[in-house]
Specification:
Number of helices: 11
Distance between the termini: 30 Å
Bound molecules: adenosine-5'-diphosphate, magnesium ion
Helix content: 25-40%
Strand order of the largest sheet: 6-7-8-3-9-10
CATH class of the largest domain: Alpha Beta
Order of helices and strands: EEEHEEHEHHHHHEHEHEEHH
CATH topology of the largest domain: Rossmann fold
Shape: globular
Structural class: alpha/beta
CATH architecture of the largest domain: 3-Layer(aba) Sandwich
Amino acid sequence: MNAPPTHRTLALEGMTVDTRDERLVDDVSITLERGEVVALVGASGSGKSLSCAAALDALPSGTIKRAGQVHLDGMPIAASLLRGRVVASIMQNPRSAFNPVRTLKSHFDETLKALGVARKARGPRSRQAMLDAGLEEPERLLKLYPFEMSGGMLQRTMIALALASEAPFLFADEPTTDLDVIHQRDILDLLADLRTRFGLGLLLITHDMGVVARLADRVLVMDQGRLVESAPVETLFERPQHVVTRALVEAHLALYPHRQAPS
Ligand SMILES: Nc1ncnc2c1ncn2[C@@H]1O[C@H](COP(=O)(O)OP(=O)(O)O)[C@@H](O)[C@H]1O
Ligand SMILES: [Mg+2]
């Protein structure tokens, strides 16, 4: 399941997103290595999702990419070649990512077909990805429709789809926000495990500093469309520089005063 070892570094450079009359994301650059977890944090509306969407040419209507280029191992790469092949994505609400009238198997088949995987390889690859994402009895589960699964299982299935694509990088946009606490923990354990097992490079968008403390190697902080701080996770918690970062860290420590973050 491991992706080709040639892809080591993904670099988003100068992502800039506008509406007709406003700048939403201003010159955001993010570098992500294989096997690394980079957390992108910041208040709601600070531009986290749009920065990633800009890199993948997946911006919502009403917004336009003004500038920005992605490099893979130092070479420029088109968004169309990145999406799904080099970068898989999972989102906050897994249910909205599935077609309600199609089985899970048909989602896997479509994804793998689009990647050029031969028909007879699709089944085994789907089942293996389900197992790798911690879903037992893949044969049975693949026959189900999205409504027959819990939110937590659907999020695992999203992750399994990402694994089946064998993309070396994963963008996870608030992947646990819509889940209950137990499922949140399960999904975070799984993401941590995938980073080690497959050497995935994970860009984790979150507003939860507990998640950051637990998973991230490096942290990038956004405020009003700009990156305002970038630091290794220990440094960020010990010596937050920007006022926004300080507020995030203080709020976290107020909630969990007994927990020395990060462990
Ligand atoms: N389709 C859109 N049209 C206009 N403005 C948008 C659109 N999508 C997002 N925005 C605005 O862009 C800003 C950044 O959004 P977003 O990247 O989704 O924030 P975050 O993910 O950090 O919560 C917000 O102020 C939001 O209101
Ligand atoms: Mg967002």
